[in-house]
Inverse folding.
């Protein structure tokens, strides 16, 4: 009994793959491609692309970057996913997700590389629709928040008048508690405005020392010296709300540092990535409180600052921990993973 024809099986797997696939030589010339690759590029016959350089189906501005990507694949065997613009034979340019992995070179061959291409059009349309929907919800939230704040202003005004008019001590105590509850609601509603855009905007490369200095310059911290010891040229890939996180950490020292008079912000590279350190000379955080301060509802302000700082940083793979020694000052360490920062 004859065994299975593995060459035929492999060819069928190649042809029936859900993603576009092609085999390239070291120069990027297409040796073989499947049906999905023709569909995604808008060509009808394999002969139209076989023997042609793959740059024929890429937008011109992406050619140099793809050549570098191809060179890395041959030198390292496998590289990460990258996006390139696919120029279809007819029709608009579409976004494609590329993954290269080295193939086996035959006799007399210097090697091949397998390229897998995924059409990102549907995903990008879905992302745009989701962002549009969230923005619309945020607009509704903004309108409702404005109306609630107006009503709270009226409520607090009447409570103040009631407090002045009432002479009974018990009633005055009740009114004071009502004022406190209304003021708490006002703070919570105001807080939703600060963080309504979490995850809405696409992460961007941020000039870290510049953003820290700009943020520190607009925070009210009388008597508090902020020193930035981060070299120029350090950038991190972060949510645009990174400014609020920096502001929150500095304000945390102002509010809870008690004896703190200075904050020093530095960075260093280590095996796990880039570590950004915010260190003050205040009272520090007790050992039993180091994780609790990141819990939702903890803190004397609104109870969400450090909790949301951790959540927002996690959107781009960053972490934050308090690593200081009680009695010697607080120390917050933000770790940026490899690939999430640049040092030039």
């Amino acid at each position: 009994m004859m065994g299975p024809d593995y060459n035929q099986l492999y060819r069928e797997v190649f042809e029936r793959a859900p993603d576009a696939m092609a085999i390239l030589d070291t120069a990027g010339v297409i040796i073989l491609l499947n049906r999905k690759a023709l569909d995604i590029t808008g060509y009808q016959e394999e002969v139209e692309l076989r023997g042609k350089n793959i740059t024929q189906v890429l937008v011109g501005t992406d050619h140099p970057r793809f050549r570098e990507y191809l060179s890395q694949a041959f030198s390292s065997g496998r590289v990460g996913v990258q996006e390139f613009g696919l120029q279809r034979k007819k029709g608009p340019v579409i976004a494609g997700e590329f993954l290269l992995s080295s193939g086996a070179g035959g006799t007399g061959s210097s090697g091949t590389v397998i390229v897998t291409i995924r059409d990102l059009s549907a995903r990008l349309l879905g992302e745009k629709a989701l962002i549009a929907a969230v923005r619309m919800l945020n607009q509704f939230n903004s309108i409702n928040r404005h109306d609630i704040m107006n009503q709270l202003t009226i409520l607090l005004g009447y409570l103040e008048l009631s407090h002045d008019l009432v002479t009974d001590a018990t009633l005055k105590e009740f009114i004071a508690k009502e004022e406190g509850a209304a003021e708490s609601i006002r703070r919570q509603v105001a807080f939703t405005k600060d963080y309504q855009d979490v995850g809405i905007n696409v992460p961007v490369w941020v000039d870290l020392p510049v953003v820290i200095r700009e943020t520190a310059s607009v925070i009210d911290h009388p008597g508090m010296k902020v020193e930035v010891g981060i070299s120029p040229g350090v950038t991190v890939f972060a949510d645009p709300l990174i400014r609020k996180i920096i502001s929150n950490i500095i304000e945390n020292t102002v509010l809870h540092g008690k004896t703190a008079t200075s904050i020093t912000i530095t960075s260093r590279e280590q095996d796990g990535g880039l570590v950004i350190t915010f260190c003050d000379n205040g009272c520090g955080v007790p050992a039993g409180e180091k994780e609790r301060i990141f819990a939702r509802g903890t803190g004397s302000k609104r109870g969400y600052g450090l909790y949301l700082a951790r959540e927002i940083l996690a959107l781009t793979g960053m972490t934050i921990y308090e690593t200081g020694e009680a009695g010697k000052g607080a120390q917050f360490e933000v770790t940026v993973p490899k690939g999430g920062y640049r040092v030039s």
In short: Residues 121-165 form the longest helix (45 residues).
